[in-house]
Amino acid sequence: MDEAALNAITDTDALRALVREQMVKLVRHQEVISQHELTIARRDHEIAYKTAKIDKLTHELARLRRVQFSAKSERMNPEQRELFDETMVADIAAVEAKLGALQDSTSAPSPKPPRAKPVRRALPPELPREVTVHMPEQCDCASCGSALTQIGTHASEKLDVKPPVFFVRRDEYPQLACPHCETIVAEPVAPALIDRGQAAPGLLAQITIQKYADHLPLYRQEAILARHGITLARSTLAEWLGHVGLRLQPLVDALRAKLLTVDILHADETPVAQLDPGAGKTKRAYLFAYAGHGWPSDAGAGCAGAARSPEPQPIVIFDYCPSRAGKHAADFLGEWQGALMVDDYGGYKALFAHGITELGCWAHARRKFFDAHKASGSPVAKEALQHIGALYAIEASLRDLTPEARGRERRRRLVPKLDALKRWLDELQPKVLGNTGLDKAVNYTLKRWNALARVADDGRYPIDNNPIENAIRPIAIGRNYAQLGIMHSPTVRVAETQDRRGPQRLRA
Questions:
Q1: Hey, which of 115, 148, 331, 403 would disulfide with 459, CB 3.0 to 4.6 Å?
Q2: What is the CA 329 to chain-centroid distance, rounded?
Q3: Residues 186 and 173 sit within 8 Å (Cβ to Cβ)
Q4: Does pLDDT of 116 surpass 70?
């Protein structure tokens, strides 16, 4: 075989080897490309999923905010509204957290520009601080071995809480004796709220506050105590509450005496259910609530012979009564003579025949027009709301004035508005269809007009009864947990029992 033929064969083998090598590389490249395409497809799918999820959460967040900031119905109890708002805020925070996590994990553009972060309120400076210093494990430079020098501190503060700490308060009374005359000397034992009782004042205060201010039934408090290794029966806790009520009566009497030194009072009542052991069911009782008005009182008559109080009294007293009869209000007020802000309940009418000045609540009148407008969309009811809104706008501008200046401004600005509203209602009354919501609102306002218009007579008079209504609203929350048990005399023993359904009731 000649040399040319050998070279041709060698070149052909080399070419085939080169082709095979390139084919292998091509297959490998195709495999890599396939893997990249699969990765890109998965990433595109993930981005599409996250984008859809972001869109969904964004719309859900917008919906929740519309619900949160929409017009609030006046028919909803404000305490219920607060519970609703708390749940709404928690839902919005959860959606925002999910949305933030998704936006951080994808490069897809956000459908909307990010919201400005709210400014975090500083933690109260008066709270005690527990400082933990986290020093680096190594105090020498890892590069050159030199000692490190502190140049600053990064600090973060978080609000924390410790569970209640229960402890035993031990009081010892050493007994000293004289070795010569055998005289024994010892400090007398300090008086206790409960004779031979195991509860210190701090524990009694905690149980009482949780029961009546935080609406925590005794069966729940019993479980909380058990988690801390303390076994106390509900009947024991209820007996303690009975003793606390008895010991607090002098304080209530003193508060009542102080409250009746002011000239202007708010009053209202709310029903409560009381267990009637003899009948085997609950009966309706009432809590009458009284509060002093929030502006200074420096003139006028109060309780006969009582000293005048120049400052407003931030006192609210709840008076248990077995019925809603007006005699209970008369018994509480006694010889008091002043201005009383109430609703149109007939039980108070007898008071106004004996020298007490009746003040009408414009919030009650407005609420009736609001209900009429809400039910039918009546433009007349809407116009009435605008008239009353003008009165409240004037009142808002007079809030910071002295009573004397407020009285002058009311006579100058409020009286013309009241006169115009009265003429409008007088003209409207015969035109309104009878037995309708609007008819009831107009008749109520005209019936109460003298009491309602009295707000312009004195700069100290309130425009509505909202302060006392706000004070009694928390009572409604407690109705869902426990029924009231009332002590009528020191000899009554109070015990709390659990029925088959679970809620606790006080038995008086």
A1: 403
A2: 29
A3: yes
A4: no
